[in-house]
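quick one, two chains, predict together pls
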Amino acid sequence: MSKYRDHKKYEDYEFEDFLSDEFFVQWVKSPDENNSHFWEKWLTSNPKKRDLVSEAASFVRSIHYKENFEFSDEDYIDVFENILKAEVGIDSCNSIKPNEMKWYSIFSIRGVAASLLVLFCLWAQYEAFNFKTDPEPIPEIVLVKRSNPAGQKSIINLPDGSTIHLNANSEIEFPREFSNDIRLVSLTGEAFFEIEKENRPFIVQSGETKIQVLGTSFNVKKMGNESLYVALITGKVSVDTQDGSQMTLEPNEMLVIEEGGRFQKTGFDPKEVIGWKDNYLVFKTSSLPEIRLKLEQWYGVKIELKGDFDEKWTYSGIYKDEMLENVLRGICMTSGMNYKINKKQITLTNPK
Amino acid sequence: MNNNPKQQPNSTFIPIKHLETIKVFEKKSDCDIWNAFNKGDEMAFNYLYRTYVQDLYKFGSQYSSDLSLVKDSIQNLFIYLRKKRGTLSEVTNIKGYLFRSIQREIIKNIKANASLELFEENFLESHFQIEVSPEVSFIKKESDVQRKIQLQRGLNQLTTKQRKAILLFYEEELSYKEIAEIMNFSEVKTARKLIYRALAGLKEFIKPTSY
């Protein structure tokens, strides 16, 4: 047979050998008991080839038609009906020629039987199609909007069983019922997602960016015009950026996308990034403007700064379920500032 | 290569009768299904329609952006097949057979339609374009994004024939034998060579960086 393949053993396979192997492609695209049994066994005895095989499999799966048109439900039924109608010679629309059957040929016994059979089939089809062809209102998508003002957090349960911790000053919008093939929510602000694993992808839209997952837990934060932060705890997420590129995150990785589109990956401290959902107020070498913003958001207060402040000064500390006054006391103790609370209005002064 | 029906995203809209049909036929061989259809089994026809109409539409629309022409061609093909029931010859791979048939039907219709651009035996550049879809595990690092762009560039440089073969092989999961038949090659190894050479041309773009 071919010199390209048949003299080579799988253990000597290079990248393009895997890619031109029917049995390999079959395993990647339509794994079943037989091919999986073979390839999994083979991988166990050829562990060095594992990376190569997974890269080759990725390539196979990434090839798709660019022009990818879906046959709509209307077309599906339209064409189906036309095919059946053409059969019995009912006057059909467009270009279909009815069967060239003379009327008298119907009077043969076989002809009558055949016509009855076809009519029966037609009737059966109509019966089966009935609940579609009845004018069925397009299901209206009812959107649910939940928002938190400053000083308030909430937990939201989604129809698919997923849970969202919505932070203060944040808003989330989602359909009351997810569609059959996608779970899409849009977020302004910050939320922690615990997503139930299932086949429909779960997509978080934040500004122009889409974050896609199957089942996983992760944090998304975008406050106003600030950068977007996506931090992954478990599972895998992929992020489509405005410029069309795609990034994936592994657990404990955080993706930061600046307003201009520049992005970078970093690690992160879980307590600092997602502690908020368990009521941990975390400062980690935070500057005064950062502290101010965080406190305003957390407690729903307004903070006024009076006097000169050292720009290099930072503060670190963790508070759990703490009253605002205790937090202010802690901050002021290390900084020498004074605080004054007047209902929702806080004043921080630096006497120096 | 595979006889499994593709899962359709609109499955909930399909009448229950069709779902039962799938259950009856999905374990049967292509040969048996085709024979049942040839003998006039309406369920077998339902199964064929349900299983392949979406694939035929996708494949057909690679030839023409005139989607109503593609739709009419599919309609004509099924009408023809139903008319010829009882006289159809044996088919061992239904998908391959239907692809060959729809290809012929569409090309015939494009040629018949004088208002459309003249169709050459050599495909137009725009036919069978490939897109590298974001495959999650493929892109792990920022450098991989670059690699994906490179790969896309490499794929765009292939000839239409090579692109068609690659799509039939990976996207449609057809075997070399079926690809050779669809592409009118007299020998199976021509299809194999075509794909192997296309891959060799892409080697620089697709070879794992770590390897």
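Confidence is low (pLDDT under 50) at residues 1-16, 136-140 of chain B.
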